C-alpha cells in the first residue's frame, strides 16, 4: 500500500468490538461502491484512473503551453482549483529540475477587486493563457474573472490569438461555457458528468494545470490507480481498508464532531484546504456531519494549541506525516551556546520535527483528543495520487456510515440565491425586496446602493 493509516493511538478511545459492529454496513456500502449499484451517476471519479487517452490529450496541450506562454491562469472555484493547487504546492520541489515551464496563477475563487486588479497588472506584457474551469460557465466568481481576463488577453494579443490561448474545461455537452467554447473554437476538455467538482482533481480539471507546471501526471494517476486497487482487493482485510472511515464514524457517535487535519509540512497546507472541501461538502447535511478544520504545525500550536490541549473535547485529529525529507539541513554548531541549542547541534531538522510530531501526538492524546496518522513514505506525484484516492474512497464510505448522501451539496445554493436577488438578477425581484427589508434592520443604507460607481 503506497500510504499507511496508523490508528493504533486510537485504542484508548475505540474498542475492537466497535469496529466489528460496523462491518456489516461496511460490506454493503463497499459492494455498492465497487459495483456502482447505488449512486452510479456520482461515481465516475473511480474510472478516471483508467482514462489513458485523456492523459495523452492533456500532455499534448500542456506541452504546447510550455512552448508558447510563461503564465497559465487557472480560473475556477471549489473543486475546480483546490485539488490542482494542493498537488502543485505539495509537489513543487519536484519542479527543481524543470526549467522553462509556465507559472500557474489561480483566480476566480473570490470576488476581490484588489486581487484581480493585481493579477491583471502583473499579466500586462506577459505571454499568458487562460484555463477556465466550470461545468456551467455561469458560476459568478469564475465567470467575472473570465470576462475580465479574456478582455485583457484580447487587448494584449488580439481576438484570434486569444481564442488559441483559451482552454475551457467544462461539461461535454451543455452549459454556457460549453456553448462558448464550441462557438469560439477554444481548445476544450470534458469534465465527466459523473464526477462532482470536489472529486475532479484526477480529471483534466487538475491534470492540465499540473502537467503544464511540469508535474508527472502519469505517476499521479498510477498512485491513485494502485490505491483504488488496494481498496478493491478482496484479499485485503476489509476493516483495514476502511479503518480510517470507521474510526471517524465511531468517534462521531461518541460526540467528537470536529476533525483536525494536521500537517507538519507547510507544502501540505493546500491538501488540507482540499480536504476541508471534500469532507465538508460531502458530510455537512441534515444538521449532521463532522466539521473538518486544517491546522499547520508547529505554527498553529502557538495559537490554536491551547484550545486543542484544554478546550472543549469535541475534537479528534488526523495527522499527515511524510517519512522522507526532500531537504537535509542540520543545526550548525555555535561558538557559545547562548540560545541553548547545543544539544541539537548536528541533528537534522526533519528528525527534530519528527520528535515534535511525536510529542504533539502524545500530548493531545493525553489531553483527551483522539489522534491518528496517515503516513506517506515520501511526497512525490505517485504518493500524492494515492493520497487523493485514499481520501476520496474514505469519504465515500464515511458519509454513508454517517447516514449522509456523500455526493451532493444542496446547501451551497442558499447563499447564491440570496446573492442573485440582492444583485438584481432577473427573476429574483420579489426575493430581492424581501431580503432588502430584512437587511434594513441591521445594515446601513450605504451598503444598499447600486453597484455601478
TrEMBL record:
SUPFAM superfamilies the record matches: SIS domain
One function term, GO molecular function aspect: carbohydrate derivative binding
Subcellular localization(s) per the UniProt record: Cytoplasm
Active site: 281, 416
SIS domain segment(s): 61-220
Keyword Metal-binding: no
Pathway: Carbohydrate degradation; glycolysis; D-glyceraldehyde 3-phosphate and glycerone phosphate from D-glucose: step 2/4; Carbohydrate biosynthesis; gluconeogenesis
Pfam families the UniProt entry points to: PGI
Keywords tagged on the record: Cytoplasm, Gluconeogenesis, Glycolysis, Isomerase
GO biological process: gluconeogenesis; glucose 6-phosphate metabolic process; glycolytic process
One cellular-component annotation, GO: cytosol
CDD domains to which the protein is assigned, alphabetical: SIS_PGI_1, SIS_PGI_2
EC number(s) reported in the record: 5.3.1.9
Protein function: Catalyzes the reversible isomerization of glucose-6-phosphate to fructose-6-phosphate.
PANTHER family reported in the protein's UniProt record: GLUCOSE-6-PHOSPHATE ISOMERASE
NCBIfam families found in the cross-reference section: PRK14097.1
Listed name of the protein: Glucose-6-phosphate isomerase
Source species of the chain: Candidatus Carbonibacillus altaicus
